[in-house]
């Protein structure tokens, strides 16, 4: 009755089913790994955002590379803004996906060291792409700022090409080593994404909190792949039963036709 399973068509179908099952199981396991990675990343971000602010020099120093555990940590700094050496970072978007600039202002600490502060986003509404935009002034004099500690930007991490020969005081990436050479000063590694004090009039727009990755989506995909893997043998069994039934019905019909009396 089931000799049809030895036919070329059914052998191929069975082999494909046998290959699909472990493949789908493996894809489900991979999705669970992605779920674990994303969940761990989200926990790191959440822990960093919830941590109490600490002095910036307790987490970073000149030449220091900000780690995953230090990224997004809230830090404070006391000093003054150096607007004379302010720059803008090109091709940055705000929460509404509008393209503009980020305002990068050196902040001189009491001990003379410098920490870079990203004061936020302004629109690119100048007369031309080469003109330096009008930037709202930061607080003057000695102030205390709070911000999220961020690692130096690289092309590899951001996907942004570091274009050279840009208009004066415009850059593509925020890099403390490059800024140390430009300023001729001792610059702490990484930079601060300003969170306080809030700018007067809401400009520049401070950079929003980092978004959380959609880890539950990977969990759902893992369950989906495993359900698919379970459905393969069920589907194969249903097809076999249907094929056997169709063959029985065809054989019964053929027998009935052969045994029927010939018409006179």
From TrEMBL:
CDD domains: SURF1. InterPro entries: Surf1/Shy1, Surf1/Surf4. Pfam families: SURF1. Its main location: membrane. Keywords: Cell membrane, Membrane, Transmembrane, Transmembrane helix. The keyword Transmembrane applies. PANTHER family: SURFEIT LOCUS PROTEIN, SURFEIT LOCUS PROTEIN 1. This is SURF1-like protein. It comes from Streptomyces thermocoprophilus.
